[in-house]
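User: Can you write out an input/output pair for a complex, sequences first and structure second?

Assistant: Here is one pair. Inputs:
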Amino acid sequence: MYTNLKRTLAKECVKKVGETVKVQGWVKKVRHLGNISFLVIRDRTGEIQCVLEGELAGFIVETESVIEAIGEVVSTNQTSLGVELLSKSVKVMNKNSLLPFEVNKKEVKAGLENLLNHRVLSLRHEKIASIFKIKATLEEAFREYLTGLGFIRIFTPKIVSQGAEGGANVFTLNYFGKEAFLAQSPQFYKQMMVASGLECVFEIGAVYRAEEHNSSRHLNEYISLDVELGFIEGFEELMELETEVLKYMFEKVKEKNKNELNLLKIEVPIITEIPKLTVHEASEILKKRYKKEMSEGDLNSEGEKLIANYIKETTGSDFVFITEYPRESRPMYTMPSENGLTKSFDLLYKGLEITSGGERIHEYEMLAASFREKGLNEENFENYLNTFKYGVPPHGGFAIGLERLTAKLLGLMNVREASAFPRDINRLTP
Amino acid sequence: MYTNLKRTLAKECVKKVGETVKVQGWVKKVRHLGNISFLVIRDRTGEIQCVLEGELAGFIVETESVIEAIGEVVSTNQTSLGVELLSKSVKVMNKNSLLPFEVNKKEVKAGLENLLNHRVLSLRHEKIASIFKIKATLEEAFREYLTGLGFIRIFTPKIVSQGAEGGANVFTLNYFGKEAFLAQSPQFYKQMMVASGLECVFEIGAVYRAEEHNSSRHLNEYISLDVELGFIEGFEELMELETEVLKYMFEKVKEKNKNELNLLKIEVPIITEIPKLTVHEASEILKKRYKKEMSEGDLNSEGEKLIANYIKETTGSDFVFITEYPRESRPMYTMPSENGLTKSFDLLYKGLEITSGGERIHEYEMLAASFREKGLNEENFENYLNTFKYGVPPHGGFAIGLERLTAKLLGLMNVREASAFPRDINRLTP
């Protein structure tokens, strides 16, 4: 009986009043009221109440078990969906054991470590699942926008023979008897792909930082949204492009994730123009307004937060570009400008760095000299450096940390909350 | 003069007859004919011929240098584009040194190792660049199709505490003093994300196999297109979904990559239904028709090729699903069926396995027993196994090897040709 019935999703039931349907999902709630029981089933689209009468009343099942209910869809004003199921049969598909914490209340009452230890369960809570639906939209929008501009999606290796940032903080592995590293960024490779004639490329992939930080801002493995493009006229172009990309990403979230944003009570900011400050200007503001002396030419995390507050107060923007970092605080491939500065920028979002970017050196001799000045052995970077002998156009790019962007947009206290299975100095599981 | 002129791409020049434009790209060819020189500039959209007269004639530049030409677009019947540039100025933006091989002939005459050693150069050849444009479309179409069905894109860690296939062939790394591994597949994590209530998920990411093969079919790092979904009614559903996904991917390539397909002289097959054979049926065919005795219940690579030929001859299909592998040849999470077989399948494309898939075990006790039968210590897989205590629905999935799919579609002899920077037992650079 009913064996040929296909599954109907909770949300689709509203269109099937009067029909017999099969619903499958997780048991969110069970209530028994004398001769009648109510069972709320949750699936990926929402939840539906099943009414159990007669023989079915008093049906015993643990919440979070997987269940199937077959019944007639009827209209009701008792549920927010506007329909419920008059059940004809109920069947436990897979039973649940005792839960370490409750996931069916309005809020999950468990600490972050507990939530992360039991990720499969914590994700059953719709507020937590919402984070990952929004993260997926951000990434999709990033690629959609760039593909629309003719950028090509590239795939570059994460097992590499040299770190792109000069060798510190890399994870080491044994590659068939040779020493190899996990890529800290696709920096060299994305530049090489620009030079290969693809010109405008992007990559979405994991990057690895063996940093011993244990802060709310750091992950040792995270998703980097990388962009690199050739034939740029200046590094300002890169900031313009990033502004447009972020604008599109936020608009897509507003459009696709209405439910999730409502649940999380998040208003997505409208990005117009993003204010810019040079590092020098930022230091002056910190000195004059906040009496803070920063080490010349860089902002620490306290400085970043103060500048973010200043920009928010004076312009209303959650974002600010900090530009023209001095050479000593940027990697060897950064294009210098005048007075020991570089054509580089960071983007702060609510006081957190979510992007580094800039123009790169495209001439062989200048690049080789820059490696030497940083005390790096050119021979170790031969494959990358040789690229620059074969005609590389002026180019630059940037990278957005996806988890940081998600966390800041959603007001999460810790970037780990935006990673399904975060890796940090203490955490290698689940 | 002209400093405010924005760059015009080669292909866009056809719409700008009579206008003065700035073109930037790589020098493909230079010819001098007395008082006139011809310079062909290639950019990411195509190529345009620049006519150099008067003072500009005789302009000396190495091919593959980066160049800028400003001039008037005029109609001509001398070029396939239908226009050329009457140059007013030419400027070398970055010069090229001597090339290790020629990239501007109809074919690149260099061996695979040489091409891979100089990837930036070999990609300058439009036939080679075409491979990566098509690969990008395949991946984009994969995600587009699944997103359309409501699947959520997930990101799972590649640094893991256990290999998903039972521990062999994994790369080992030092993770802050602990032993860790590079993920062979996102298998455990994608199942966990189904169980988390997201139900239908996909992932696009690198996977790592420390296999010492050195064949035309193997890469040690490759891109896996992973799918996993809950509440399936049988493993046949998975093969249907994969058929639809592949159909969409191939249609998108036909639509978006006309130029590239023309260049490579590839006709994309129309996928209708994909034939299915059980492993047992395949073995019988090998025995009767080809006098080959295979070890019971699995096909080796010779067997896969013969079966592919047989299916091509008898049905015209380049694809064939091989189903119901015996338990001993499948991983511990595979759902058993009767007679020691499993609800599993492989997909062969032109005789090469491009997919493994199947239904997974969703009940804790059955799964724990399966681990034990395979001689695996349950305690080492605690995080994964515990998931199954909390109500996991029937589910299954599959994974497509992106480089293998690309290579077979484009008739490439070696899967390394479909990887920009392949990693194999000998190759860790560039």
